[in-house]
Amino acid sequence: MEKICCIDNGACNIKIGNITDEKPLVIPNCIMKAKSEKRRPFIGNQIDECRDISGIFYILGFTKGYITNWEVQKNIYDYIFSTEFPVNFSDTKLIITEPLFNFPIIQEAMIEIFFEEYDCISLTKTTAPDLCQYQYTNTQDPDEPPLCCVVIDVGYSFSHIVPFVKGKKVLSAIRRIDIGGKLLTNHLKEVISYRFLNVMDESFVINQMKEDSCFVSQDFNADMAMAKKKYPENKTIREYVLPDCTTIRRGYLQTPGTAKKGDDYQVIRLNNERFTVPELLFHPSDLGINQMGIAEATVDAINACPEETRPHLYANIIVMGGSSKFPGIRNRLQKDIRSMAPEIFTVSVSIPDDDPLTYAWYGSQFLANDPEFDNLSISRQDYEENGVRGVLNENDAQ
Question: For the chain, how big is the Rg over CA atoms in Å?
């Protein structure tokens, strides 16, 4: 029996698994090199074998959200398909995600690689918001499934707001913001390098620090007033214990003054950067980016849809992506969108209870059962008969 494997090909992480699996395998979508082991590249989860994670630098296949270095990307695929998640392409259909509005030349390269290099029997291209829409609409009330929804995809390179009406994207209403997890990590590096010590080469550690310590403010002015006070009146201040790669593999957050006597760990004291960094998602102009924040862009996207769909769109807003894991982001979005939406409409913002990073992957189970699945797929026979541009044009027409 043919298997169906889904690859949610994010710029930061690849989520891969057969649609019958309970959960996908999450693998860093990059090659990393460390100062301590210059000769050895670490691909994906191999980074766990690195003895010293200081000074790690990334070699990425993606640039600004799009695959631009296929040599790097194929090396990562080769490693995953041979070691982390072996795939027998002779009896496995593939579902793979790509960025919204992906360039045709990148789509052509992807199709060629999977049919020529891996002898794939069937390939289905989709996007993470599409899979998220499948998952959301099929897991709500079966008696009254939602006809519309808005997917807020807060990703690594940028964020997208994508409205869906009856399972179809409203292309003219899609909004993109050039703020994502990568920019937030880089901004935190700059702030800490300016205030404490130079960490510009420590992307790996600072990204962990961001994930462990940052949160979304519910009242920015009040939190800034709090941050001006001294500890212990200032409830925001925390110390982040940096990893020493011997006893501490990953840094952790602690309240000031709780270190045990004799501990000689290096710590960084964090104050308002804990909430000013995620605030860029709501106010990109703070960093000189002349764009709307995600709450304002969501309202703008909904207003670009047909008027009769707007009540349903406001009532079904789903947030996904790795950068949507900041504590407080759902309540902040709910409050901000509520303040801008018409009073007569119900506003409901939800974030998956399990993991917003892998939420879209689960939608592949419903996509595979869609009656139109075979029509959306590119078979090996189609590829051999029509060539890469032929199948690409045919697929786009559908």
Answer: 22
